[in-house]
Structures are given as structure tokens and as C-alpha cells.
Specification:
This protein is α/β, with parallel strands linked by helices and 235 residues long. Helices cover 52% and strands 14% of the residues.
Length: 235
């Protein structure tokens, strides 16, 4: 199954190239065989990264629950030694994220910063929304200051405005970073950012298992349900 899924990603990359779509792919390592073994997963995802590179495209390695964080990063570091078209995701809810971002920046690896959707214990993650937001802003500033191209993934208007304000204060151009949001969430905000000249990438789950993906997002934290309902009516 993991190899078949990798083949589907390669087919998607071919379609993106053929149709001249401005898009890339994000990969969850548990789908790619991480629970079989790190080496199996490494070789399987190699095929996707190589296929993307042949098409001048990019592969984002998604971050999952904290039990997988270090293993995911270790694999990302291995891929980054071979390829320059691979990046990953860091969650501001985790205590360790500042250290991880510093390491990723030192290796020149592109980061998507998000808050994190998984329910994590207090031993590894901030439990209060205010703490997660505060860390998000701190990490956002570190990423923008790096001079590398990174992605700020949030639907939270307060986080968006904080990012725009900091970039303006530091003279960081709109072409030096991008925003990312989920498909169908805060669409008015997405359109507004594009009209203002910001890069705006929309994250779209695809395939036959899209509903279980959204269902997991809703189950993991009650805040996710309230957030989705709020933005369904905002458009």
C-alpha cells in the first residue's frame, strides 16, 4: 500500500507538470511506510522527491504527532543531504520547535510553520491557545529573519496581521515568504491576501481518504470543530 501511494503522488506530480499548475505535494510519512521502518520510508519517499525534482517541483514532508517528530526530522535531514527540493513542517504548540527551527535554518531547509492540530500532553506541548500563539509569532519572526523562503500556515487573522506587520517593519518583501491555508477555510482571507500581493498557497487533501483526514482534524481537538463552523459561515 505504501508503495502504491507513492506511485499516486508521482502521478500527481506528472499531472501538475503537464497541466502547468503552480502546486507542489505534501507527504505524511506514516502513509509512506514509516511504521514499517525508517529505511523503507526513506527509500519510498526518495522516489517522490526525485520525481518532483525532475519536474522542477517541491515536496513538503508533513509533521504528525509528537511521537513521530524526531524520526520525521531525522529523515528530512537525510533527504536534504541529497536533494534541495524538500522541506518540512514545524508546529508552534511544541516546546521543542524553536530548537528544531534553528537546526532547519542552519541546513537551509524550508519550513511551513503552523500551530498544530494534534492533541498533545503538557509534557511536550503548550496547552493554552495564548501560549501557542505567542510561540507562533516568535517562530515566525525567526523564520522571516533567516532570509530564506518559508511558509506561514494559519487562518488566524491575528497571526496573519502580526506576520505582515513584522515583515513591513523589517523591510522583508512579500516575495520572501508566503501564507498557506486549508481549502475552503477563510476563503475571503485568502482572496484578500492575494489582492494585497502576498503569496497564498491553498492546501488541498486529495484521494479517496479525504473525509477521514478532515474527520481526524475535527476529533483531535474540540477547538478545530468550532474553528471550522465559524469559517463555514464567513466564506
Amino acid at each position: 500500500m505504501a508503495k502504491e501511494l507513492a506511485d499516486k503522488y508521482i502521478d500527481v506530480l506528472k499531472t501538475i507538470n503537464h497541466e502547468h499548475i503552480k502546486a507542489n505535494v505534501s507527504v505524511k510519512l506514516t502513509q509512506m511506510g514509516l511504521d514499517i521502518s525508517d529505511d523503507f520510508c526513506f527509500d519510498n519517499v526518495n522516489r517522490i522527491i526525485e520525481a518532483a525534482g525532475d519536474k522542477g517541483n517541491f515536496v513538503r514532508i508533513d509533521m504528525e504527532g509528537s511521537d513521530y517528530t524526531q524520526r520525521t526530522l531525522d529523515l528530512v535531514y537525510r533527504w536534504a543531504e541529497r536533494y534541495d527540493n524538500v522541506g518540512t513542517v514545524i508546529q508552534s504548540m511544541l516546546y521543542r520547535s524553536a530548537v528544531d527551527i534553528a537546526e532547519l535554518i542552519s541546513r537551509g531547509i524550508r519550513v511551513r510553520l503552523c500551530k498544530g492540530a494534534y492533541k498533545e500532553p503538557a509534557s511536550v506541548a503548550f496547552q493554552k491557545k495564548e501560549q501557542v500563539n505567542e510561540n507562533f509569532i516568535k517562530l515566525m519572526k525567526t523564520l522571516l529573519d533567516s532570509g530564506q523562503f518559508h511558509s506561514i500556515a494559519t487562518h488566524d487573522n491575528a497571526m496573519i496581521e502580526a506576520t505582515k506587520k513584522y515583515a513591513d517593519e523589517k523591510g522583508i518583501g512579500k516575495d520572501k515568504y508566503e501564507f498557506q491555508m486549508l481549502y475552503g477555510i477563510n476563503r475571503s482571507g485568502q482572496i484578500k491576501l492575494v489582492r494585497e500581493g502576498y503569496g497564498m498557497l491553498v492546501y488541498v487533501p486529495f484521494g479517496t481518504h479525504w473525509f477521514p483526514y478532515y474527520y481526524r482534524r475535527l476529533r483531535e481537538r474540540k477547538e478545530n470543530i468550532l474553528f471550522i463552523l465559524k469559517h463555514l459561515f464567513k466564506g
